[in-house]
Specification:
2 strands, mainly alpha, elongated, 649 residues
Length: 649
């Protein structure tokens, strides 16, 4: 070790000789350099020298080689220094740790600064000579991986520990922030590859947050697909060691890129692929956020983008049907959000469904059945009704036409889905004209036959078994029909409702008087309450003017026809929910009739039965409502008597 303290001076003399003007002196300098290389490698090799002595040698020689050798403007000195540093890293082992941060930073910088400038020239003229940029980037990375700097970095990775990382990572990150604008893509890849290499492992966990903040924007903005994949791989390695909150945020941000331009979409696909292949254990907990994005993006117009997501879809799903069944709700929700957003609409100029969403929903229908298509249309109508109406008002009429037509199909499951969809579409758009289109259809469906015990319409009541099986194809769930009628009443103009008075009352009375399941009766009671609500609003708005004769006629018919049926329903159906709903409807009808005073009160035949029901009612809420009905009838009778007295006087 007596020689070690003189190594710096010896190396300085060797480099000075190698840069001499005389060839004989340069040759002597080369010989001295080779001799010093052999001596320095032996003194720093932990298999030949003690670790402490090896560290002393490295502390003396390495800083000199990194600053005076590799950064030298003399090509022979620079190449010799790189070769010597690699040999030192090979033999020094753990002795290199104290100087690891200096060595790594120098090697990373050298990967960019010492890159063959001919590659930059070729890149500038690649398009003119027909060379693909991605292939050129792959070539650059391949050349870098074969360089002495890369090999030195690999050697450093093998001996890195948490203590070395504590010094290395902050220094690298700070350096990256300062040099971001000037560092070439290849250098960035190598720098970040190093500190996020899988060989480093959990030691990088304290730095994952800052690394992800650094990596993600680079992946998003990088134009080269090859460099983008390299950065994405580094990002995926960091993801493996990130906290759950960081992982969730990164995956959500990555998935959100599918709504951007082509570069953002490519970034999304590459990131998700890297996460799946390199951090699959983490990704498995966020498939509900990833799978819908992959499914929707398969239908992008750009073939390159759609191809990337198609590969991802095949990797993530073993069965398309199972995948769609598992994530149907998330997929439909994503379509709704996309079409409803201003950015989506401005980018693709949608009317109701842009081509991408239309193809996606068509695929849902193909795989899961046509009823899935109806549910998807209903969800889109609910979520995006404003965007659809404002873009093209005719579109909502087309939706109504398609869904209404589906309600007349023979397939039982499909028809039920169509009726559910129709109810949501009518409510979503709230168009008054829908009543005139939909109600006649619903009325025809309702009156197409009598009701069986299951609440479905059949054309014949007492028929042979074979005939019953045949008409089952035409069965209609009346509770769904009634729910659709309620939605129509809610959006209709009052004059249109009055025009259908006869048919409306027929439906309500027929439903309450038949031997229907209680669920269907509840739907009919809801329709009656909605009708009363609309009439009540009209009466409230026209307090200073006489009520329309047609409104008076409908209110009187409601009061005369419905309460006896409701009272009988409460008496015969022993279900608490029916008692509450029926009592609410009865109270609404009585109060609506009271609003028409002064009209001579008609003798209420059902009052005694109503009092009896109140006395025996066990449900507290229903009992309270029945008491209000009785009290309102008493007040109605007293008001009528007073009006008669005033008339006689």
């Amino acid at each position: 070790m007596s020689v070690a303290k003189h190594l710096r001076k010896l190396w300085s003399a060797a480099f000075r000789a190698m840069d001499d003007i005389k060839e004989t002196v340069r040759n002597s300098g080369d010989k001295l350099c080779r001799a010093l290389t052999s001596l320095t490698v032996r003194l720093s090799d932990v298999s030949l020298t003690g670790v402490s002595e090896a560290r002393q040698t490295m502390d003396i020689v390495l800083p000199f080689l990194l600053t005076e050798g590799i950064l030298s403007k003399v090509d022979s000195i620079r190449k010799a220094s790189i070769g010597i540093v690699m040999k030192l890293a090979k033999g020094a082992g753990i002795a290199i740790r104290p100087t690891l941060s200096d060595l790594v930073c120098c090697m990373l910088e050298s990967l960019s600064s010492l890159e063959d400038q001919g590659l930059n020239y070729v890149e500038l003229h690649a398009a003119n000579v027909g060379i693909q940029t991605e292939k050129l980037e792959n070539l650059r990375i391949s050349i870098a991986k074969g360089s002495p700097m890369w090999e030195t970095l690999d050697l450093c990775i093998k001996v890195v520990d948490s203590e070395a990382l504590d010094q290395l990572v902050p220094r690298l990150l700070s350096w990256f922030d300062l040099e971001l604008a000037s560092i070439q893509g290849l250098g960035w890849y190598c720098q970040l590859y190093y500190i996020t290499s899988s060989k480093v492992g959990v030691e990088i966990k304290p730095y994952t947050s800052r690394l992800l903040r650094l990596l993600f924007p680079v992946v998003k903005d990088e134009k080269s697909a090859a460099s983008k994949r390299a950065f994405a791989s580094a990002c995926a390695i960091v993801l493996k060691h990130a906290a759950p909150t960081q992982a969730e945020m990164l995956i959500d941000d990555s998935a959100a890129l599918h709504n951007g331009d082509k570069n953002a979409q490519v970034s999304c696909a590459i990131l998700l692929k890297s996460y799946s292949s390199m951090a699959s254990d983490v990704v498995s907990g966020y498939l509900a956020a990833i799978i819908p994005v992959i499914f929707i993006s398969r239908f992008e117009d750009d073939k390159f983008v759609s191809g990337l997501f198609e590969e991802l879809w095949e990797e993530h799903t073993s069965s398309e049907r199972v995948a769609l069944q598992l994530y149907l709700e998330e997929i439909v929700s994503l379509i709704c959000e996309g079409i409803g957003s201003s950015s989506w609409a401005s980018k693709r100029s949608v009317s109701i469904l842009n081509l991408q969403s239309a193809q996606a929903i068509s695929k849902l229908s193909e795989v899961l059945g046509k009823d899935a298509l109806l549910y998807a249309i209903a969800a889109l109508s609910v979520s995006c009704n404003k965007a659809i109406s404002s873009d093209d008002p005719a579109t909502m009429n087309e939706i109504l036409s398609v869904v209404s037509s589906a309600c007349t199909k023979k397939a039982k499951k499909y028809r039920e889905a169509a009726l559910s969809c129709l109810e949501q579409v009518v409510k979503a758009f709230g168009n008054q004209e829908f009543f005139n289109v939909v109600f006649p259809l619903l009325y025809e469906m309702f009156t197409s036959g009598t009701l069986s015990q299951s609440g479905k319409a059949t054309l014949v009541v007492d028929a042979a078994k074979a005939e019953e099986d045949q008409v089952e194809k035409f069965s209609v769930p009346h509770n769904k029909v009634l729910d659709c009628m309620t939605a129509c009443i809610h959006v209709a103009h009052i004059n249109d409702i009055l025009g259908q008075q006869k048919n409306l009352m027929h439906v309500l009375i027929a439903t309450m008087s038949s031997g229907l399941p209680w669920t269907v009766k509840i739907s009919a009671l809801s329709s009656a309450k909605e009708l009363c609500s609309r009439l009540q609003k009209v009466l409230d708005d026209s307090q200073e003017s006489p009520a329309n004769a047609n409104i008076i006629s409908l209110v009187q018919e409601l009061f005369l026809s419905m309460p006896p049926q409701i009272v009988e329903c409460i008496s015969t159906v022993k279900v608490a929910q029916v008692h509450v709903t029926a009592s609410e409807s009865l109270l609404v009808i009585i109060k609506l009739y009271q609003k028409l005073q002064p009209i001579r009160c008609i003798d209420v035949q059902f009052k005694d039965e109503l009092v009896h029901l109140y006395e025996v009612e066990k449900n507290g809420e229903a009992k309270s409502l029945l008491k209000k009905c009785i009290d309102t009838l008493e007040n109605l009778k007293q008001e009528s008597v007073q009006d008669d007295s005033m008339c006689m006087s």
